[in-house]
Design goal:
Pfam families: ABC_cobalt. By secondary structure, this protein is mainly alpha-helical. It is built from 10 helices and no strands.
Amino acid sequence: MMRSSTTDRPAKAESNPSSAHRLRWRVVDIVVASVLGVATGLVFLLWDLAHVGPSALLTPLLPGLQGLLNGPWLLAGVLGALIVRKPGAAVYTEIVAAVVESLVGNQWGGLLTIEAGLVQGLGVELVVALFLYRRFDLPVALLAGAAAGVFGACNDLVLWYPGSAPGFAVTYLVTSAISGAVLAGLVGWLITKGLARTGALDRFAAGREARGRV
């Protein structure tokens, strides 16, 4: 009996891959996460310039309302998590995007840009980790985007708005969470579904699910 039980284990592991195997990074995961990071880093650069006008309009309406514009900077982590589905994918993709953004140059400086990317990626990572890297549906994407918004806003409040009034802090946190849920969570989920339908993600679970393949 002991011998039979021991022999059965590899067969079961092959038919039902273990969590360790499912979560192991492949070369294609690294390549795609890197491509996503570079692509979204270019989006970040465009948004660095484009957000200035809307921010100047929103800030006088209600201090802290500019948090509604933070979502696009959170997109990389959400996309990395939804497509690659491996531990660290959100953080890795967000950091790559931040490195690209900082190398070209922005108004916040390289080190602080990369640090912000790390913190925002951790917000996404926390959510997908809570679901054991098994759920990647729309509610999880929305929650991940919102968490990234909250993490990023807390980071901003410490570094860029120290000593800010409670009203400003609460407004900034809430609007950043909303922006993260919509502009990173929802948009990231839609982009993932769109890419999956083209067949571009067939080597990933996200692609196989969308095309009805196991």
